Amino acid sequence: MQLSSLQLEATNIPFLQNVFNNHQFLNSTVDTQFIDENQELFNLKPTQNRAQKLLHYLGHVMVNGPTTPIPVKAKPSSIDPVIPPGTMGDPPIGFRDVLLRDGPEGFAKAVRAHRGLLLMDTTYRDAHQSLLATRVRTHDLKKISPFVSHNFSNLYSLENWGGATFDVAMRFLSECPWKRLQELRALVPNVPFQMLLRGANAVGYTNYPDNAVFKFCEVAKENGMDIFRVFDSLNYLPNMLLGMEAAGAAGGVVEAAISYTGDVSDPMRQKYSLDYYMNLADELVKAGTHVLCIKDMAGLLKPQSSKLLIGSLRDRFPDMPIHVHTHDTAGAGVAAMLACAEAGADVVDVAVDSMAGMTSQPSMGAIVACTKGTELDTGKQSVPRPRRCSPRVDTFDPQVTAAAPRPLRYGAGPLGRVNVLEGEQLPRPFKPCPKLILQADAAGRLPPHPKPRVSNRSPEYIYKRDLKSSCSLTCLGGSSLNSAAPTHFMDRHF
Q1: Model's pTM, two decimal places?
Q2: pLDDT single digits (tens) 303-360
Q3: Does residue 318 contact residue 310 with C-beta atoms inside 8 Å?
Q4: Among 290, 355, 300, which residue's Cα sits nearest to residue 126?
Q5: Which residue range forms the structural domain that includes residue 16?
Q6: How far apart are CA 220 and CA 424, in angstroms?
């Protein structure tokens, strides 16, 4: 019976056919060097194998459903995202220029020597992987990339590859992940790209041969990848070392990541204690990592545990860049990242405000606002929030709380005072409105106006900070108030 007529689930049938047709083999003059001496055995002829391919296809459809595009009930959104205006000319110099000039070691030294907190933006990968099942298309990422290149040039890195992106691009988006990397690299030449490498699992869900992992990292580096964050979900050191060696051999920046769990600040938890993480960090530093990362994939880091862990790592490795990753699942992500920065972390992971929070990363705008004017200043400017459900970082700037402008505006309308609102003192959504707060003249008198009856529910009194005097109260009814003024409105809205 011929091998070609058998319906076998095997990959070595063409090889066996070459062996059986070899004259040396047929003459029974073979020894243990037979395969090494006959390299033509590996000249394999591809087989059609139509029946087996058809069975594979039917089984795939039965298990995973059809892969052909089908209509869905959801209607396309009627809202077109506003793309910020592009900037002409070459983008500013970024950390990738440092990497290309000085190599991974020089890059690590520059990160450690940088004054202020550095940020990695996860919007291109982990943010939409956490919130949208990694379904953001290359087409949409390309639209915003020129703006990112010109306005976020001082990012530590832009995470845009690895993790589930490779799998989802092919299985669900019908895209080529390599083409995505190439096109984004052309649009963002100045910011380092970062990917998540699952150690010996590369970007898949099983462990692959060593040479496959090495080749994968080599091709990724050739197509524009810069920083390889290598981790193993169980902190299994041999798997991590393989990924680190592959990334290093490709010429990339090796960022070894320790998966965090438990609570190092709780003395009752002995399994994943501070000593556990310190010992693991020792092994990774000895293995030659360029950057040391704490990967809090479950969002378990709290401020007290952040200070203890990062502070201990900084004391032991004063020259090693420390990078911290978390998810805002518990809502404490911003506080934890600020604590990490104060304890000595060089880089923290954030996402743009509209894609931050919940299972995504902490808000970039919140981190920028909280560090502004301090020694940890990120050097970035807050931008208006694009969605109502995103954090309101502009709440830090105005002297009226975010909840106050709307009732104030409705209360000021019947009094005829909407035309004297102070837009610059209000959160951005209300800036197009006229001034909400009455402004008295030098003698403390308000402009003349009718005095309608003011109900008990109207916002009668509001704060107004005068640059030349202390905080004073002004009555919407038209008279200045002293410290004995009623406080029911302040209690309700401030």
Answers
A1: 0.69
A2: 999 999 999 999 999 999 999 999 999 999 999 999 999 999 999 999 999 999 999 9
A3: no
A4: 355
A5: 3-64
A6: 48
